[in-house]
Amino acid sequence: MPTIKLAPDGTITLPAELRESLALKPGDELSLEVVDGTLRISPTSRPQSPKKPTDKKTAAAEKAAGRQTAARPDVPSAKGTGTCGASPLPAPGTGAAGAPAPSLRRPELQTSMRFIKGVGPKLAEALSKKGITTVEDALYVLPNRYEDRRQLKEIARLRPGGTEAFFATVVSAGPQVSKGGRNYFEVVVRDATGSLILKWFHYHPAFMKKNWATGRSGIFIGEISQFGLQREMHHPEVEWAGEGEDLAQVMARDPENFGRILPVYPLTEGVSQKVMRRIMRDVVQHYSRFLTATLAEDVLTRHHLLSLPVALREAHAPDPDSLVEELNAGRGEAHRSLAFDEFFFLQLGLALKKRGVAVEDGISFNVTHRYTKELLKLLPFSLTNAQRRVLSEIKEDMMAPHPMHRLVQGDVGCGKTLVALMAALICVENDYQVAIMAPTELLAEQHFLNIHGYCEKLGISVALLTASVKGKNDTLEKIATGATQIVVGTHAVIQEKVEFKKLGLGIIDEQHRFGVVQRSLLKRKGVNPDILVMTATPIPRTLSMTVFGDLSLSVIDELPPGRTPIETRVVREKRRGEVYATIREEIGKGRQAYVIYPLVEETEKSDLKAAVQMAEHLAQEIFPEFKVAVLHGRMSSAEKEAVMIAFKAQETDILVSTTVIEVGIDVPNATVMVIEHAERFGLSQLHQLRGRVGRGSARSRCILIAGDRLSEDGARRLDVMVQSNDGFVIAEADLSIRGPGDFLGTRQAGLPDLKVADVLRDGGVLELARREAFAVVERDPELTSTESQRLRSELIVRWGGRLELAGIA
Known about the structure:
Strand 3 and strand 4 form a beta hairpin. The protein is flat, with a radius of gyration of 32 Å. The protein has 809 residues and is α/β, with parallel strands linked by helices. The chain contains 27 helices and 25 strands. The strands form 6 sheets. It has a 7-stranded parallel beta sheet with strand order 15-16-14-17-18-13-19, with helices on both faces. It has a 6-stranded parallel beta sheet with strand order 20-25-24-21-23-22, sandwiched between helices. 42% of the residues are buried.
């Protein structure tokens, strides 16, 4: 037990152990209180008064002290640790040789928000809607922005578009009526530099008249709007000055909201910003000390990071000398440290998953070229260099004694399906079966049509297995006996009644449309089969390091020769005649066209055009001289196949469709893609649809018809399509517009949620954290050292039992 001594001069010196466990820095203030004969020591909020210029060295010393805050390995466990599934970690709750593993979680962090001062049942219920039920939840709810309240601005310096606070005096106040007959209350306030108008459109007349007396002064807070030359603030907050009080006295009266950098928190209904700040101040002040540093001191020092407790405290109560612009951009030291911490444990789990695959016994395939050489002879073209490189990487994986877990990325039309077929043939050469799983029946049917023609010539049996396929019992029997060597299908492939005799390779196309459970079920259809996942949706590098960080990556970054770039343009409704003229011109040259609609059939609730009705309109009124067909997801498998065969055979001139043709359709003679209501589609969808043309040597065009009501994001998406044909450029833009949370969905990927880190903003931090995490697993694969056991304990809590689902498990 540490001993505290009272020095002759009245000062108290705290042992290093206590300073570390309380996450203290030089200059921190402590609160001492005696409760039931026990002395309680806790850090108070850091002073918010600005530091003197001469304090720079002290500030640097404080930062350094924060980086050196170490974790205590003897803290009792607070949470259930979950389960690691197939993870190579020791069993939860044990370390080396079965010894209890240290936990970093303190039970105090699980205190219900109901027990925080001023938070009763009603407020606790409101906070729970935001996911805040414990003080630990609250500590991780960081401000979404900061306001500079250290010194208030004069009216002349206020800028529109942001939330501002200023001190002024009321010069006039009273009800007004707008030109349109709308009632509102208007107040003009003034300081020495100018005046500003305050407005209320919802107000109580008697209350406003009583409170807004001429000559009264106060601090006004709100968003500045600009209307012509006039600046206004609508429904502002106000902090009135008392009789004879000046600005300094008003600010001193409310140090929580003035004279500091103010955190602005995300809110939920029933919780005001002031109440939220008070709650968060109490939580940080009394409970942040129970957080323990998670990362090793050498990692913190090497990357100039703050420990977890110090970083969280600084994020909630920034240093008075901080730059508000940096804080709002997420570039502050605290945010960077917290992002690193999150990324580190995400990458540590992925590194363990990857290592777990590497030590599993798999199938070591022999590459005999029995079928692959024969297939190359059947092809009317040669493989690209990129296809050869990726195929070489796949062969190397398949020959290894451990299961292959590889992701193949490539833009539309790069030839991923052919590479997958070559891998399948290697598997069949070794007397193993192959399962190819696609997200839609149409795509599965297209793969089947593209593959089985070649396979029949090679003497290989291929079967299609979807919900619509008839004669399933016969198909299932042939799969179970091994008579069927390659199975192409949808989710039907992983149903319980489907049994493979000897599955050696699972291929998942457009894998981002599948959940982790589906990928796991496919793997379990065999004994550690190789897994190859493919996507024509390019994934930005930062996301590939997170969502697919446990997979090996191959990129087909070259299109077959002879392809011409697709010309893309945006047109409005009034120029529809020009679009039809383009279609007529191309069909006159012997070419074909697609016209895409967002809906199958029109509805009363939507004014969007729909495929079924528009196909009839185009056939009868616009292009009566051409053959028009319609394709959509509600058609039977046989109907869809008949439509596609007719279009490929050039028996149809115009194919009207929904997004069912987004992937997998290959008709080189089609040179025009028209997308109606283009603003309603995502960038990825638009790029995939555009990829249905430009598959031959003829000039191809993509025409995006946009509605009159175009949002800012919609306009940005269409502009990106016009500017680039590069799928990776488009994917980066899509990530920027939609944000990382919506781009792929980490919940579906089975990964821990990121509370602070942003893969777009913090890409550089992600790379550093990944390097450190993979280095830990390389040094200590079982995480059995004392330091690693602490990491292992925290890792299990962070992943919450999802380690098995982190990748393909």
